[in-house]
Amino acid sequence: MSSSDPKTRSKPPTSPPAPDAPPIPPSSWAKRTGFKPKLSGETNASDSGQISLPSRARENNNQPDLEAGRVRPAPPAVNGEQQPANEKGPAEKKRKEADGVNKGSSASSANGHTVNNGAAPQPQQPTRRPSRNEEVVDVLPQNVDDEGFVGRHSHMKYELRDTPGLVPIGLYGFQHYLSMLGSLILIPLVIVPAMGGTYEDTANVVSTVLFVSGVTTLLHSFLGSRLPLIQGSSFVFLAPALAIINSPEFRGLNGNNFKHIMKELQGAIIMASAFQALLGYSGLMSLFLRLINPVVVAPTIAAVGLSFYSYGFPLVGNCLEIGVMQILLVIIFSLYLRKISVLGHRIFLIYAVPLGLVITWGVAFLLTEAGAYSYKGCDTNIPVSNIISEHCRKHVSRMKHCRVDTSHAFKSSPWFRFPYPLQWGTPVFHWKMAIVMCVVSIIASVDSVGSYHASSLLVSSRPPTPGVVSRGIGLEGLSGILAGLWGTGTGSTTLTENVHTIAVTKMGSRRAVELGACVLIVLSLVGKVGGFIASIPEVIVAALLCFMWAMLAALGLSNLRYSEAGSSRNIIIVGLSLFFSLSIPAYFQQYGISPNSNMSAPSYFQPYIVTSHGPFGTKYEGVNYIMNTLLSLNMVIAFIVAVILDNTVPGSRQERGVYVWSESEAARREPAVVKDYELPFRVGQVFRWVKWVGL
């Protein structure tokens, strides 16, 4: 009350310090975007998480806290002068509270402004509602947007430790896995035919992938990061798997090519996963985390999705009416109908992939039964080389790719089949393939780090500690060893699509993911399920992959929302990383190939046969194999360029969007964080002496 009396109110200093540079009047674009003429690396944010007008009256407002996922109070004023945002005031020399906010600062800034000792209080500026045509920049995923990126606690239906009941958890768990159907089942439909496997082999690998995914998800939920993240065959491992499959030594094999190549993949995956487990459980991952930030994660994961452009639409073109229909349906469901809710669920957004799959498959079945793809005297079971009729030769490709009855996987699959380890034989180990997979396991760890941080901001009270992240990466390595022993064809890691699924379904319960994993294990024992999935036509698979890979690229770039995406530093780094991730592999893939050369592999597999014609031609064949293969992988080039530039080009922590993980000492004092990440059944006591893999 005394501060409002004009007689007793303290007067502002008579000679305030002169500013470093006169403020430049913002242009209309600067007003809309919150651009500061003099870049400081810090952004002002209102309580809604939107960058506001950079006026002098609002410089003392709260700053967005990347660690806590909410607005952080500005440091208190000292001697009438506001402390810079990147410096600690005397009352906040060291962060001791679990949420990183000093109690005194929180109390003084509860009303949206800071305490100014001896200075006139600045007038509170009303929050201006942006007009419809103005661009709004989101600093953190606090607000509800069309894509479902919401702030935690306020809009999540179930958070990490919620257990509302068996029926709701079962329904939401089934919904969670069904929305990620494409990520779980599509990889075996690509690699098994590439290895020369039959439809029955594809069905068996699909069942194995479902089984291993369920088991590793349970392990990760109990003994890993404990976040509601589904584990499975990641697209990160697809490109190196195709490179190994198309190695020169596997050409012209006699007998069962599928089992021979699968055993080679198993050996490489087991050794690479053991390296990843060592990286996590040794604590090296905690040191490696210092190099991994959003500007590194974004182009690396985006390059994974963009690298398969040569596989997507070229296969869709084999039957345009079916493939284009599949792509259009998924686009319509996920974009144009995304806001339609049925019983409170956005069914078209959540189930865009399975709904599009069912409708397209049904239309293709009707066309097949109606005789649209039947030609007189032609049989799809006859090999192309034995077809004499020119009429049948002309239509055989259309019959093979458009008909839905060419696969006999469902009929030949047994009702019960238990996936067991070493079902394809004893793994074969080659050091050159293992080194390639070891490098890829680092990329998979980078992907998982981004997923850990983004999902924790949605469902948990705090981000995990570096020890929890290391523990999660270590368990992903053990999960990859299981995947190698069972023979899934790829390693096991956190699926990138987890974050989007959690945000869209608003389901962050750990119990729902665990129950869904149990259902997945049961379904994997039903052989007909794997046979049904294996019978999906190749054109429909390629059309779905076009959407999934585009989503993967977009999800990778979405990590930039934690940094200053408009910073010229970040724009140049991401742009260079993406460009060179496409250009350098193209050089390696096209090196030594003449325009009229007759390649034995299909055109969509030619980017993965670089080991036989790459520019590295030393006398050491193994070194040539490793260098030609690694430098032809888009994600490896993107990671190398991004991690070097982001860690050498100067930039503030706010500008870079440096991931802020919870401190171990503060996390152990906060019960909510302990309950979120502590290992169950007193298992954590075993790791008390290993501080780098726990709280």
From TrEMBL:
Its main location: membrane. Residues 41-53, 103-119 have a biased composition (Polar residues). The chain crosses the membrane at residues 202-220, 227-245, 265-284, 291-309, 315-336, 348-367, 428-446, 512-533, 539-558, 570-588, 625-645. The keyword Transcription regulation does not apply. InterPro entries: NCS2 (IPR006043). Keywords: Membrane, Transmembrane, Transmembrane helix. Belongs to the nucleobase:cation symporter-2 (NCS2) (TC 2.A.40) family. This is Nucleobase-ascorbate transporter 12. It comes from Hibiscus syriacus. The lineage of its organism: Eukaryota, Viridiplantae, Streptophyta, Embryophyta, Tracheophyta.
